[in-house]
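[job 4471] stage=fold_predict status=RUNNING
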Amino acid sequence: MSGLRTLIVEDDPQVSRVTRGFVERHPAFIVVGTVATGRAALEAIVSMKPDLVLLDIYLPDMTGIAVLRTARAHGFGGEVVPVTAASELDTVRRARQLGVRHYLVKPFTMRAMHERLDAVHTALSEERRAAADTLDQRAIDDLLRDRGPVSAASEGSAVTLRRVAHALAGMPDGASAAEIAALTGLSRVSARRYLQQLLDAGQALVEPQYGAAGRPELRYRPVD
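[job 4471] inference complete, writing C-alpha cells
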C-alpha cells in the first residue's frame, strides 16, 4: 500500500502545523491538504479523495459531526478520526454511528497520534486485501458462468448486502462483525465492510460496548 492520503481539518494554525508534522513523520501516510473550515473540508474531500480525514470537531462554520454526516451522505467511505478537546460521550456516540472507529483527544502526543494512524493503516490494509480476494473470486466465477465481470460483481454485492441486512435484522439486541460473519459465511473484514454500507444508508446503528478488559467492541444493530 502506498502512502495513505490524509486531509487535516483544523482551524487553529498552530495545532494544524503540529498535526501535519506528526503525520509526516509516519512512513505510511502523506498529507495532501490542510483546511480550516467545514465548508472547505467538504470541498477538499470531493476534490482530493483522501483515505483519511483528521477532523477537528469544533470548526468556525459548522461542527465536525455535521461535516462527517454530510460527507457520508454524499458517499464518502474513507476513514475519519475526529480530533477534539472534548471527550463527551454523546459526541463519541454520534461519531460511531457514522462509521468512526478511532478518535483523538487534545492535547495529544506524537505517540498517541501514531497509535491511531497505525490502527487506521492496519484496518485499511486488511480491507483492501479482502476486497482484492473478493474481486479475484468474482473474476473466476464470471469465467465459469460466462458472464460479464461488472454485472456479476454488482449483482453479487447486492445479494451479499441483503444477506448481511437479513442477518442483522435477526439480531435486535445487536451483533458484532464477527457474529455477522459467522452467520453469513463472510470474513470478518468483509462483514464489517457490508455493515458499513448499512450504516451509510441509515439502515443500521453502531456503538461501542466495553468488556471486562476495557477494550470496546463495536456492536451493530438494525434501525427500528
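[job 4471] summary: The first strand starts at residue 4 and ends at 9.
[job 4471] exit 0
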